[in-house]
Design a protein that fits this description.
Oligomer: heterotrimer
Structural class of chain B: mainly alpha
Distance between the termini of chain B: 34 Å
Shape of chain A: globular
Strand content of chain B: under 5%
Largest interface: B-C, 103 and 105 residues
Number of strands of chain A: 15
Number of strands of chain B: 1
Shape of chain B: globular
Helix content of chain B: 55-70%
Chains: A alpha+beta (523), B mainly alpha (314), C mainly alpha (673)
Structural class of chain A: alpha+beta
Radius of gyration of chain A: 23 Å
Number of domains of chain A: 3
CATH class of the largest domain in chain A: Mainly Alpha
CATH architecture of the largest domain in chain A: Orthogonal Bundle
CATH superfamily of the largest domain in chain A: Cytochrome-c3 Hydrogenase, chain B
Number of helices of chain B: 13
CATH topology of the largest domain in chain A: Cytochrome-c3 Hydrogenase, chain B
Strand order of the largest sheet of chain A: 1-4-3-2
Number of helices of chain A: 19
Number of domains of chain B: 1
């Protein structure tokens, strides 16, 4: 069934415009919102990939509530839209039946002041105890530079009842140099009973700051949403902008973009495997070696893009520059060298019983949980969910390059490590094909004018962590509302499922096996 | 040299050389991993710096927290004085009775655990719970391994076990598993691989370091020194069991005493090199896999006893 | 006054004073008279303590007391064995009376003093009488007085749980008393006038079945009273229920009265215990001790933890007794007496530290109004003096140097090492098992005692009761301190303690390691007087402490101390984020999950019926299965299906191999002999 057929089945009366750029917008009444979402998710088994609100009170006196469901089979999206009256900003929560909406709805509550009626867990999410009640930063009438008084609102974390049960608090300040996040384990010893994170210590107001900016001015913000996914975030956002602008990106630029994103994927996977196997388990030989190899790739980025994090290359309309034959050779040589050394190193690790014993059966995420929570990327593919936006929603040059998506069913740390290793091999092959393509199309244009005026669109890519999905709406050439969704936002709640049952000292290993972004979650 | 002086000289040498042990193992590990690594003598500087710093004490902590470092250091010092590390036949050598030694070490562990629990931090409790488990479960392995050696040497004093060390082990090969058991006990007691990762920054996985998290300044210096002394003690003891050469005896002159220091350094370097090899080539054990380690150590000790029994303890 | 006169006057005097104490307690309407009753209790104890000390130190022969015989004319007699136990009884009861003088008044609402004071006096009188009776009938009578008075004391607080525990206790006690009665009947040919000494004379005439029956009955009577597995289930229920000073008497002394009974009866009737019985006692003792020490690590009530620890210690005592009997029967009297010496030393040490710990637990209960360990914490700051005494007692119970129980363990290990030199395969095998077991018990006991002390006294308080607690008054904490000091003195001076013990701890006992040693090795270690080793160890420990303290003083010139909050990682923390006692022993619970009977049960209830992911959790521990299900039924199943289970030998679990090794070691030797 394609998007139109699905839409007709859930909203027979809706006036539908034809699908645009793979997206079908389905407006429903507020009263039908819950039923429509439930039908899409439960009956049609469509994953919820994004849920967001807009402040449309200036135009229509109401808030907009949007939910994007993916039709991977037909490479389409369904965007469900409803209006929540500004005077009575309450909407029916879909979380009871669509678990993936859990955090989105809480974020909407905090940022827009819309109440998710019937949410089983309506606590604050983005706001901490120090934010005064009635603070709704993404409403249009909230000034971006507002100074807030210090409040002491209740901010309870989930606990477990029982004599002898206690909580282990960790963070947000850790012994290592990592991003801030607070984790609360309920335990009666070593075995984790429940686990909850208190994140959102890195609120930068990116979504608010993007409003009123041009696409070009927005790029530095978007690239810094999560510093380790600069290229993929740039790609997803640019594609949304280009869809609004109806801009045809030149073929060569599409391939160049793939090169940047795959280099980023290779680098970060290399880091992760070294970090999981090396630092997570204490097999320090692998960490020391892996990080040394990763450094070469970061230096490659510095040679190619002028910075060590693959930033500033992907721009609306194409790329910032062309890559010539010497640079393509450099890329291939560096990548081959890194792969040769890293794979040899990791082979040592994966032949060590002591390491495998740590990785196998640790941090198991069930397929049901992965599906219900809307897991993205490696976490989903290691638990048997065969989803990859590069294949399911082709973009850039991915439609023309061969891609095999590795999927495993064990759902443990070991599976996530092996998926990364597979994807590194894939990335290397994609880079080789892409470089050959670039050598062939030498001299072809690599940029096109991109002037978005009015309208909204989705943009996406499969970053190394998983699917990045953005939605952007332009009004008069500037951004009216931008939603940037890193896969970390969807994957953080997974820890509540994959942590319990493990012992506390194995949690860092579980954490590293997902390696989620704190900054990317908390814009 | 009189026996009393011998004991004092040994204590002084072991304490003076102790910070070298963690320094050496860090250095060797760095080399094995292709890193430059910190200076070998860094632990001396760390301890000296810590002694000059301010002491920060948790408001939740009681007198037990303040007393614990002294007790832990006392335990390490006493073990370093009574065991045959640099010399034999010192005045305190009769106190190297296997039960006394295990009691002395256990006292140190107990106070470390109490100090870790006192500030009421979850990390301290975590480290304390794990350390107590390790110490408690390694106790039988320690006693049984030493008992096998005691039967061979005819004396429960570790000092006398040097009679069956080195070449004596080759004459009584049934003792070798006991020495292996002792080596495993040494790894566990000193919070090394595969029980603990002394280099980790992951609070949730720590054992020894987690108990020290609330300690600062001179307290921390004392505890660092105590754990270095314990590491050096175990290293020298194991080295001496394999190669009992170069041990000072009562009546030795100052020249011999001077020669004992390089011998001890060499033994430390070799054992720390071995430790670095172990720690570079494997992942840490999963905490809930530790029983296999504990019972493995005990199994080695019992194997010695069993085979020794068949051999008539000859 | 000669020592003999002191004994002749002191012991009946003690009984008389206790009778007056019982009367005063019964008659008392107000605190004055009640305190008089406590003073009489204390005076009787002091009199008895001095008399028994005089008896031991003057090395008097068995002494017939002038007191009128109670039943059928058998006189009251005191000898070295009974005087040793009298010394424990009177010493502990002195401390208990001192403690009860204040505690009884403060806790009058909970434990009615008109019940507790006279019953305590009767309880002490009962034990006193058991130790002095030379006639079987009066032995039984006092035995019953002891049992019944303690039964009422167990349910003194009148709660339903206490009544239940007391009834369980009464059932076991009466079963034991009945067994003893029948046993005496079999041994004494049905005569009620028989003296204990005469019980042994008729024994050879009995048919073997009757002899075995009598031995079985007597063994059951005393081991069930002492809480030997598998007759131990009542003990951790009953002992914690009584007022703390009575718990101290029950755990510290009454269990030893049972040991006394076993020693008395076996020494009269079975000087050479059959091997099977010795082995059974050793095996049950060790096995029960292992189960008990693990239970002590799981229990969450401080008095219950102490009760489990008593089961463990008594198990160890029986294991020593069994091994001693075995060594004696196999012609190694020196080894047998060395182990017996270790056993007496352990009994002595246990009486001191367990009484101290129970009194200390009472003081904690008095201050914090709870004995639940998960609701305590932070008391070291609030009760620094009591906490210091309790730390010493916990170390003593651990057993760690330089305390009494450690000296006993030291002696035991020496003897076990010596057993390897006997060349007797049975002794070597049992010795190896015991050595491993004793070391395991030591590690687990350290764990239990650290857990007990740390979660009662350290970190932040976990309840309002603990937060508001203050240092207990001197009458409550002084007896605790005295017992801690006594334990320390016993540990340091153990080699010189033999005048107090029923059998001498000769200097040879400390050097008993028998395997022929190379002369050179001997010379190296024998240079110092070996018997002074415990003292030397204590001195060396003190010296090392001083050195370490001086090092800290001299090397840290500034000594600026700043008090701050515990490091919280940037998010405020509170007492719900401290480790709990349950959590502390969680690894142990997991590692020994095949033995542990508590199971964690998690219940997650949905917040919304349609959403299975958002839940509220709660956890509780449930007893997985009783001793019957876990021990007896598997044994039956094992015997049924040995053949089917043989393939399990290849299961790859190393713990199993260790166990298998020990078992086969024993079995092969058994067959070989």
């Amino acid at each position: 069934m394609n998007a139109a057929a699905v839409a007709r089945s859930i909203a027979p009366d809706a006036a539908l415009s034809p699908p645009d750029e793979g997206r079908l917008v389905v407006p429903v009444a507020l009263g039908d919102w819950e039923a429509a979402a439930r039908a899409l998710h439960a009956d049609h088994r469509l994953p919820l990939d994004l849920l967001w609100a807009t402040d449309d009170r200036a135009a229509s006196g109401s808030f907009g509530l949007h939910a994007a469901f993916a039709l991977d089979a037909s490479h389409e999206w369904i965007e469900l839209v409803t209006a929540v009256p500004g005077a009575d900003p309450v909407f029916p929560s879909i979380t009871p039946r669509v678990m993936a909406a859990h955090w989105y709805e809480r974020a909407v509550q905090d940022m827009f002041g819309l109440t998710a009626a019937g949410h089983p867990d309506p606590r604050r999410l983005v706001h901490h105890e120090n934010v005064p009640p009635g603070t709704w930063p993404l409403r249009k009438d909230f000034p971006w530079d507002a100074k807030l008084p210090w409040a002491a609102e209740p901010h309870p974390l989930a606990t477990v009842e029982g004599e002898g049960v206690f909580q282990v608090p960790v963070g947000p300040i850790h012994a290592g140099v990592i991003e801030p996040g607070h984790f609360r384990f309920s335990v009666a010893g070593e075995r984790i009973i429940t686990l909850e994170g208190k994140l959102f210590f890195t609120h930068k107001g990116v979504e608010k700051l993007l409003e009123g900016r041009t696409a070009a001015a927005a790029m530095p913000f978007v690239e810094r949403v999560s510093g380790d996914s600069a290229a993929s975030h740039a790609l997803a956002f640019c594609q949304a902008v280009e869809a609004v602008a109806r801009c045809r990106v030149p073929e060569r630029a599409r391939v160049l973009r793939v090169l940047a994103v795959e280099l980023e994927r290779f680098t970060m996977h290399l880091h992760d495997v070294a970090n999981i196997c090396g630092m997570g388990t204490g097999f320090t030989l692998l960490a020391a070696g892996g990080f040394r190899v990763k450094e070469r790739l970061q230096r490659l980025s510095a040679r190619l893009f002028g910075n060590r994090f693959f930033r500033g290359f992907v721009l609306p309309g194409g790329t910032a520059r062309d890559l010539g034959a010497p640079e393509l050779d450099d890329i291939e040589a560096t990548l081959d060298g890194a792969w040769a050394e890293a794979s040899g190193l990791f082979q040592i690790g994966l032949e060590s019983d002591s390491l495998l014993d740590r990785l196998e059966t640790t941090g198991v995420l069930s397929r049901d949980a992965a599906w219900a929570y809307g897991a993205k990327g490696i976490a989903a593919r290691a638990s048997g969910l065969d989803r990859d936006s590069r294949r399911d929603h082709p973009h850039a040059a991915y439609g023309t390059l061969p891609l095999r998506v590795p999927v495993r069913t064990e759902g443990d740390v070991d599976a996530r490590v092996r998926i990364r290793l597979d994807e590194m091999a894939q990335a290397r092959a994609l880079v080789a094909r892409g470089a050959a393509e670039c050598r062939r199309s030498q001299g072809a244009p690599w940029s096109a004018p991109c002037e978005p005026a009015d309208g909204d669109a989705l943009g996406w890519t499969e970053g190394w962590r998983g699917q990045i999905l953005d939605w952007v709406r332009f009004r008069g050439g500037v951004i009216d509302r931008a939603v940037v969704r890193d896969p970390s936002f969807c994957n953080w709640p997974l820890f509540g499922e994959l942590g319990p049952g493990n012992i506390v000292p194995d949690f860092p290993l579980c954490n590293k096996s997902l390696n989620l972004s704190y900054s990317g979650t908390d814009l | 040299m009189s026996p009393a002086l011998l004991t004092l000289v040994q204590g002084a040498i072991v304490v003076a050389l102790a910070p070298l042990a963690p320094g050496l193992v860090r250095r060797f590990k760095a080399v094995l991993q292709g890193r430059q690594g910190p200076p070998t003598l860094l632990p001396y500087w760390t301890i000296a710096t810590l002694f000059r710093k301010e002491t920060v004490v948790s408001q939740s902590a009681s007198w037990v927290f303040l007393a614990a470092p002294t007790a832990v250091l006392a335990s390490s010092l006493l073990a370093a004085c009574v065991l045959p590390l640099v010399s034999r036949g010192g005045a305190l050598a009769p106190l190297s009775h296997l039960l006394a030694v295990s009691g002395i070490w256990m006292l140190g562990s107990v106070f470390l655990v109490l100090g870790g629990l006192d500030p009421g931090s979850a990390f301290g409790g975590m480290g304390a719970s794990r350390e107590m488990t390790i110490s408690a479960f390694l106790e039988p392995a320690l006693v049984v391994s030493l008992a096998a050696l005691a039967i061979a040497s005819g004396s429960p004093a570790v000092d006398a076990m040097m009679d069956v060390a080195g070449r004596g082990l080759l004459l009584r090969p049934w003792l070798l598993p006991a020495v292996g058991g002792l080596a495993l006990v040494a790894l566990g007691e000193n919070a090394r691989y595969p029980v603990d990762n002394p280099a980790t920054h992951l609070e949730l996985t720590m054992v020894h370091e987690a108990m020290l998290l609330e300690y600062s300044g001179p307290h921390l210096a004392i505890l660092e020194l105590a754990s270095a002394v314990k590491l050096a003690t175990f290293a020298l003891l194991l080295a001496n069991l394999l190669v009992p050469a170069g041990l000072l005896r009562a009546g030795a002159g100052p020249l011999a005493a001077a020669a004992a220091v390089p011998a001890a350094i060499a033994k430390l370097a070799v054992t720390m090199g071995g430790l670095a090899l172990v720690e570079s080539g494997m992942a840490k054990l999963r905490l809930y896999r530790l029983p296999e380690f504990f019972f493995g150590a005990l199994f080695l000790g019992l194997t010695s006893l069993g085979i020794g029994l068949m051999a008539g303890f000859k | 006054m000669t020592a003999g006169q002191a004994v002749a006057a002191g012991l009946p005097g003690a009984a008389l004073l206790w009778v007056f104490a019982a009367i005063a307690g019964l008659a008392a309407r107000g605190p004055r008279v009640r305190q008089l009753a406590h003073a009489l209790l204390a005076a009787g104890s002091a009199s008895g303590l001095l008399a028994s000390l005089a008896h031991q130190l003057a090395a008097l022969p068995p002494l017939k007391l002038a007191a009128p015989p109670i039943l059928f004319g058998a006189p009251f007699v005191v000898d070295r064995l009974s005087a040793f136990f009298l010394m424990l009884l009177h010493g502990v009861s002195l401390m208990a009376a001192w403690f009860g003088w204040r505690y009884g008044e403060d806790e009058a609402a909970k434990y009615p003093p008109r019940l507790v004071v006279p019953l305590t006096a009767v309880f002490c009188l009962g034990m006193h009488g058991v130790l002095l009776s030379s006639g079987a009938a009066s032995f039984l009578l006092f035995w019953e007085a002891m049992s019944v008075s303690s039964f009422f004391l167990v349910m003194a607080d009148g709660t339903a749980d206490s009544r239940k525990a007391a009834l369980l206790y009464l059932a076991v006690a009466q079963a034991g008393a009945l067994a003893l009665l029948v046993g005496i009947g079999v041994l004494g040919g049905g005569s009620a006038r028989v003296t204990l000494a005469a019980l042994g004379t008729g024994l050879p005439a009995l048919p073997p079945a009757s002899r075995t029956l009598a031995l079985g009955l007597v063994a059951f009577a005393f081991t069930s009273k002492a809480g030997l597995a598998p007759f131990h289930a009542w003990l951790p229920e009953a002992h914690p229920r009584a007022p703390s000073q009575v718990s101290a008497l029950m755990s510290g002394v009454m269990l030893k009265i049972a040991v006394y009974g076993l020693l008395r009866f076996t020494s009269i009737c079975w000087p050479a215990l059959p091997d099977g019985w010795s082995l059974a006692l050793a095996a049950l003792g060790l096995g029960g001790a292992v189960v008990a020490v693990i239970s002590a690590n799981i229990a969450r009530d401080i008095k219950r933890i102490l009760a489990w620890s008593s089961v463990e210690n008594l198990g160890l005592v029986f294991a020593m007794f069994g091994f001693s009997a075995l060594a004696g029967a196999h012609g190694h009297p020196r080894l047998a007496s060395a182990i017996l010496g270790a056993m007496f030393l352990h009994v002595f040490a246990h009486a001191l530290f367990k009484a101290g710990l129970f009194l200390g637990a009472g003081a904690v209960l008095h201050g914090a109004h709870t004995a639940k360990i998960e609701d305590l914490g932070g008391l070291a700051n609030r009760m620094p003096r009591l906490s210091a005494a309790m730390l010493a007692l916990a170390l003593a119970a651990a057993p760690l140097p330089p305390f009494g129980a450690f000296a006993a363990e030291w002696l035991l290990v020496e003897s076990l090492l010596a057993s390897f030199g006997t060349g007797e395969l049975l002794l070597v095998a049992v010795g190896a098992v015991l050595l491993t077991g004793v070391a395991f018990l030591a590690g687990m006991a350290v764990f239990a005692m650290v857990r007990l002390f740390a979660f009662t006294f350290l970190a932040e308080p976990r309840s309002a009761g603990a937060r508001l607690a203050a240092e207990p008054p001197a009458p409550l904490r002084s007896p605790v301190a005295v017992l801690a000091l006594a334990g320390l003195a016993l540990g340091v001076l153990a080699p010189w303690a033999s005048p107090l013990l029923p059998i001498p701890l000769t200097r040879a006992a400390w050097t008993v390691s028998a395997p022929p040693a190379p002369a050179a090795a001997r010379a190296a270690t024998a240079a110092a007087p070996v018997s002074a080793l415990p003292l030397a160890l204590a001195a060396a420990l003190a010296g090392a402490l001083v050195c370490a303290w001086l090092a800290g003083r001299l090397l840290a010139p500034g000594r600026r101390v700043r008090r701050v909050r515990t490091w919280d990682c940037g998010q405020p923390i509170d007492a719900t984020m401290e480790y709990t006692a349950t959590g502390f022993s969680a690894p142990l619970r997991f590692f020994l999950r095949d033995i542990v009977t508590a199971e964690k049960h998690l219940v997650f209830s949905r917040v919304h019926p349609a959403n299975p992911w958002i839940t509220r959790g709660s956890m509780e521990f449930r007893k997985a299965a009783g001793a019957v299900e876990r021990i007896y039924l598997p044994i039956a199943g094992f015997i049924e299906g040995v053949g089917a289970r043989l393939k399990l030998l290849q299961n790859g679990v190393i713990q199993f191999y260790v166990a298998l090794m020990l078992v086969t070691l024993m079995l092969t030797l058994w067959v070989a002999l």
